[in-house]
């Protein structure tokens, strides 16, 4: 046995644990946890203002994760922390504030959810228009088919509402905020990126401060002494924040932003399955058809990007 070869093999860095999990499994977990946020919001509105629950879910995640991230945060430069804090503000505070405040002002929840589902298309347009990235025509077709399926699923929940005209732009701004944060995160170098947990902690910390300023201007930030409020915070902190956002950033380390966002086209039907199981809301063949159409669009995006990746690898080795 060659000792030099043995030393070389043992000196190779071990892959991060999340590279050992098949990407489709991570994406399935992302779908379940991301859609849980809409269910958590639906559950919590009966017990507390939406932004108060969002504020306290940030507080809980910040407190729970701090012992696990304190050492890495101390070793990180201020410039890196500021960049990741900016991404966190856009990804969480900007996105959630746009969606929840739009609904609070009278934008129907179904319409707000549909605008949030424009994320894959918003990402693609920003990447093409701002970053000059070229996407294959099959990817564009897949994104449009996925959107068609999402529209079919949410059609029964759509309504015009009686919100001020400008309020309808808030969910759109929230979606664009997450899209910008996603592209910014993908553009960071390895030296500028934080680990998964420190990134999530910083994101919740800065967003919690932002929500404190917004909600504190309208009333008290004190937690409400009710079981419903406590369950709302625990549900959204665990499933929606640590699960949803954590898996979102995790999947972005494994795949392109377009692929990860396109998977979220299946969020509306999965949310409705949650609602059927928890609130006995009815299901319909229209929802099933929309889910199938979205799945076709997602498959087209994933298959096209997989073929492009294989072709690039073959060009490098030839």
UniProtKB/TrEMBL annotation:
Residue ranges occupied by any EamA domain in the UniProt entry: 30-154, 166-302
Cross-referenced InterPro entries: AA-Vitamin_Transporters (IPR050638), EamA_dom (IPR000620), EmrE-like (IPR037185)
Topology in the lipid bilayer: Multi-pass membrane protein
TM region positions: 16-35, 47-68, 80-97, 103-127, 139-159, 165-184, 196-214, 226-248, 260-277, 283-302
UniProt xrefs under SUPFAM superfamilies: Multidrug resistance efflux transporter EmrE
Keyword list, A-Z: Membrane, Transmembrane, Transmembrane helix
Higher taxonomy: Bacteria, Pseudomonadati, Pseudomonadota, Gammaproteobacteria, Pseudomonadales
Lineage: superkingdom: Bacteria
Family membership: Belongs to the EamA transporter family.
Main location: membrane
Subcellular locations according to the entry: Membrane
Xref: Pfam families: EamA
Protein name in the entry: DMT family transporter
Keyword Membrane assigned: yes
GO cellular component: membrane
